[in-house]
């Protein structure tokens, strides 16, 4: 049975990106190398409401690569996959390839 989690309100579901332990040429990277704490957005909630009841949409969309805080979020395990739930305002930024 396949489980699918749909976030509520202004929450986003993220699968963290694991940085490689070595380069393409085979050089091993140290654990403390500068790695971005990033992830790919898997699902987004509809957004939150302001005091007048108007919908404030989430600022990211499915498929975006986002920069995440070092700590925070709620860990969720679905089957063999591990995800994290964050509030939209917890996301530090989006990453774009040039």
Automatic annotation (TrEMBL):
Q: Please tell me whether the keyword Chaperone is annotated for this protein.
A: yes
The record's Pfam families line, in alphabetical order, gives: Cpn10
UniProt KW keywords: Chaperone
Superkingdom: Eukaryota
Work out whether the entry's keyword set contains Chaperone: yes
Q: Which family does it belong to?
A: Belongs to the GroES chaperonin family.
| Entries under PANTHER family matching the protein | 10 KDA HEAT SHOCK PROTEIN, 10 KDA HEAT SHOCK PROTEIN, MITOCHONDRIAL
Protein name from the UniProt record: 10 kDa chaperonin, mitochondrial-like
**Species in which this protein is naturally found:** Camelina sativa (False flax)
